Amino acid sequence: MRILITNIGELTTNVAEGDDVCGTLHDVAVLVEGERVAWVGPAADAPDADEIVDAAGRAVIPGFVDSHSHLVFGGDRAAEFEARMQGQKYAAGGIRSTVAATRAATDDELRARLRGFLDEMLAQGTTTVEIKSGYGLDVATEERLVRLAAEVTPEVTFLGAHVVPAEYADRGDEYVDLVTGEMLDACAPHAKWIDVFCETGAFTVPQSRRVLEAGIARGLQPRVHASQLGPGEGVQLAVELGAASIDHGTYLTDDDVTALAASDTVLTLLPGVEFSTRQPYPDARRLIDAGVTVAIACDTNPGSSFTSSMPFCIAVAVRDMRMTVAEAIHAATAGGAAALRRDDIGRIAPGMRADLVLLKSPSRVHLAYRPGVPLVETVWKDGVRFA
Amino acid sequence: MRILITNIGELTTNVAEGDDVCGTLHDVAVLVEGERVAWVGPAADAPDADEIVDAAGRAVIPGFVDSHSHLVFGGDRAAEFEARMQGQKYAAGGIRSTVAATRAATDDELRARLRGFLDEMLAQGTTTVEIKSGYGLDVATEERLVRLAAEVTPEVTFLGAHVVPAEYADRGDEYVDLVTGEMLDACAPHAKWIDVFCETGAFTVPQSRRVLEAGIARGLQPRVHASQLGPGEGVQLAVELGAASIDHGTYLTDDDVTALAASDTVLTLLPGVEFSTRQPYPDARRLIDAGVTVAIACDTNPGSSFTSSMPFCIAVAVRDMRMTVAEAIHAATAGGAAALRRDDIGRIAPGMRADLVLLKSPSRVHLAYRPGVPLVETVWKDGVRFA
Questions:
Q1: Fewer CB within 10 A of the terminal residue: chain B, N end or C end?
Q2: Where are the domains of chain A?
Q3: Strands A376-381 and A356-359, how do they pair?
Q4: Shortest Cα distance from A262 to chain B (angstroms)?
């Protein structure tokens, strides 16, 4: 099956051309063959195909790569959100209420919810999503969460070290024993990534190191939640261990920025979190100007960021983190791919997976220029078209 | 035709009950008969109907009343937006580039664009929209704009005094002669409202008074754009003339707030404008606590706010203007109705127009809790169901 998408007014390839990080082409066509992109070139030179899609001058971008989400959970925390908007401060402890609801949910309930979120994301242009466990916090439930996540994505992260559960209060080291022992044994077969929330109120730096090193020893690759609620040593630890990404980075020291710039570790910005917790926005300009590779992700979760909209996150990153629109789109596609160490997604070029989004607008700029407006016309994932 | 929407988990009636400005009911049903609401009550007591819609515990709210938009125009200003996000300041003069594109567009081009925006809005839950002229700025084009707007809404506003067009540069008073003379003659038959942009760079207070009084003399009702770019006397003028609404209000003095609180004039907040121009957000808390009636609208226009998403505006109002979620939803429905002096929309009660939105979520809170996510399941306008 060969599909030709032609009369593309503006194509974001992310194959950089000089100063244009988006590698923008105009008046082009893309040929999809099976689940891969086969050809990109001037519309006038387009080859034949079985199906022709007329983009009518509109924009095409790579599917969004959402490299940070927590999609397998029970319940929601709308009342906590409402209270926070009336002045109550965000605290990581709220995670425990989701843990109770998640443990109480059946596999089928969690699966139905998960599939609902994935449909919602696909309709908004997200073609790859990373999913973390972390609302189980006991061996049986964490195993369920990574197993259910693995049914829908290869990008599964074991985050048993999300927060210390109530039953281990004041016994954090014993909980880390469990996470790095029996829980890791149960979860590692389903996961690609090991993650830890390295933050005051969650896990200390020595505890975080134990978690990450245990995961690495089992063949998992590290990524780290750090510097969300205040500065800390999580970034330095992540860089030292060669983490693919540190996520949040709301509070970064100059040393953190220098270390990131000299590393292969991506800084994943989560604009929905600052939006929904009313925290100050990190300054993406400072990071990009220092040479740090930046990704944007939704961090979909019921506590600190319940959006699943990459366009919303892009708009906020442009407005409040001082990114250009091109940088934000790049961070939400190629940046996410880098944060997942994937070289087959996030760009549109021959050989890449055919993950493409046709927008209703003539330009990608509209994703920030028209915040909140559903602008996704058609999505292809692995060459398969969704409404 | 009688439609019963039943098993509504949370119904926002806006028929206030004590401290609950939203008049929230749980486990209820709404009976629609023709284009009106016929009955609201406990689901268990629901009458028979020709069609039953099972809300399955989800939330229903009144359709959004978007009381401020500029939907009839040609072209867009994506490049200007992109430049602004890289540091260029917003200036009202950019309006003139849209004027050139609008004058060049045919009626059918403008009509197609307008209908596209209305479909987009309806899909996002907006069932009533006010539409202003103001991108013609000559007699023939302004007449076209109000005439095209009147094809789709009764809430048509003549805003010939949007900005002084280039051909009248330094002859603002002469332009006001035209607006209050020949242009008003051509436009008044199609319009309900007279509006003026009372701001440095647009129209002075004496010019604004002339425009509003001329409109009132022709049977139009006044509303005013003021205090968007800096403090001014527009609010006082609006209150003195009994305007239904002053819109923007980004810069308000204490005297402005006092005058508004003692008046029937609504203050219409436009969160998309501050978002998209990176201006400081007005403090809705200060207004509400002082007793001012507040509305939220999108101000959809290609310059300062190209969103058409009331849910997006609600989320920003909650996050950045210190409104509670209930206040923001109320402002986007009953507040908008007050800003249009309409008593048949903005609430759900027997006799009101059947403008209803069934959400995908169990609560209206999710509109702010899940920013950017399309949460509208079904919309009824005048009792007619849209996808």
A1: C
A2: 2-62+347-386, 65-339
A3: antiparallel
A4: 26
Q: Identify which of A81, A319, A370 has the shortest CB distance to residue B278.
A: A319
**DSSP letter at B43?**
G
Task: For residue B123, give the chain A residue with the closest CA.
Answer: A374
Assign 3-class secondary structure to chain A.
CEEEEEEEEEEECCCCECCECCCEEEEEEEEEECCEEEEEEEHHHCCCCCEEEECCCCEEEECEEECCECCCCCCCCHHHHHHHHCCCCCCHHHHHHHHHHHHHCCHHHHHHHHHHHHHHHHHCCEEEECEECCCCCCHHHHHHHHHHHHCCCCCEEEEEECCCCHHHCCCHHHHHHHHHHHHHHHHHHHCCEEEEEECCCCECHHHHHHHHHHHHHCCCEEEEEECCCCCCCHHHHHHHCCCCEEEECCCCCHHHHHHHHCCCCEEEECHHHHHHHCCCCCCHHHHHHHCCCEEECCCEECCCECCCCHHHHHHHHHHHCCCCHHHHHHHHHHHHHHHCCCCCCCCCCCCCECCEEEECCCCCCHHHHCCCCCCEEEEEECCEEEC
- Tokens at B375, concatenated: 């949460």
Q: Scanning the structure block, which residue is given the tokens 């919309």?
A: B379
B77-104: average pLDDT: 87
Phi-psi region of A351 (alpha: psi -120 to 50; beta: other; left: phi over 0): left
Which band of pLDDT confidence, cut at 50, 70 and 90, is reported for residue B93?
Answer: low
Closest chain A CA to residue B366: A78
Q: Average pLDDT of chain A?
A: 96
The per-residue pLDDT for range A343-385, each reduced to its tens digit, is 999 999 999 999 999 999 999 999 999 999 999 999 999 999 9
The whole-angstrom separation of Cα A253 and Cα A259 is 10
Q: Residue B304 region, left (φ>0) first, then alpha (ψ -120 to 50), else beta?
A: alpha
Chain A environment of B366 (Cβ under 8 Å)? 76, 78, 306
Q: Which of A134-143, A198-207, B47-56, B84-93 has the lowest mean pLDDT?
A: B84-93
Contacts of B319 in chain A (CB under 8 A): 85, 275-276, 278
Tracing tokens 């709210």 back to the chain, one arrives at: B61
Contact (CB<8Å) A373/B308: yes
Per-residue pLDDT, averaged over B140-157, amounts to 98
Q: How confident is the model at residue B92 (pLDDT cuts 50, 70, 90)?
A: low
Residue A83, min C-alpha distance to chain B (Å): 9
B95: pLDDT confidence band, cut at 50, 70 and 90? confident
β-pairing, A24-33 vs A36-42, is: antiparallel
Report if pTM > 0.80: yes
* Fold entry, domain B65-339: TIM Barrel (3.20.20)
pLDDT of residue A94: 80
Mutation target among B119, B122, B296, B369 for the A interface, most CBs of A within 10 A: B369
Chain A residues closer than 8 Å to B81 by CB: 365, 368-369
Confidence bin at B87 (pLDDT 50/70/90): confident
Question: Per-residue pLDDT averaged across A45-64, rounded?
Answer: 97
**Token pair listed for A385:** 């078209």
ipTM at complex level: 0.96
Least Cα distance to B309 among B113, B317, B79 occurs for B317
Q: Which CATH class is domain B2-62+347-386?
A: mainly beta
**CB atoms inside a 10 Å sphere around CB B196:** 32
Q: For the segment A65-107, what is each residue's pLDDT rounded down to a tens digit?
A: 999 999 999 999 999 999 999 988 766 668 888 999 999 999 9
Chain B interface, Cβ < 8 Å to A: 76, 78-79, 81-82, 85-86, 120, 123-124, 272, 275-276, 278, 306-309, 311-313, 315, 318-319, 324-325, 362-363, 365-366, 368-374
